[in-house]
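Notes from the 1:1 (GR / supervisor)

We went over the backlog. Supervisor wanted to see one worked example end to end before approving the batch request, so GR pasted a single chain during the call. The sequence is below; no edits were made to it. Supervisor asked that the structure be written out right there so they could see what the output format looks like.
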Amino acid sequence: MGLPQFVLASASPARRRLLQSSGIDPIVRPSAFDEDQIQSADPDVLVRTLALRKAEVVAADTSWQTAHLPALVLGCDSVLALNGEIYGKPADAADAIARWQAMRGQV
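Structure output shown during the call:
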């Protein structure tokens, strides 16, 4: 049995580059998981659950597998939280700038 296939369940170019810079050339298979299905007020629970569900969806779809090798599927997500509030993706550049300005000076 050969080495396991490494599958990145993300379309993020930055995540792919990070893996490649570490010597891992992943199979990239973005997850079709609907993130709106998961709701949590706890950012740690939210990000872990989203990453897990994305990996599970990709792992269940075997169309990407080659040579029936075992696979390691990496699901990823990121969440921005400040002062107990979770922020989703900004709608546009203006929204992102407004958030940065509102968050400026806070830790």
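Supervisor's comment: The radius of gyration is 17 Å.
Batch request approved.
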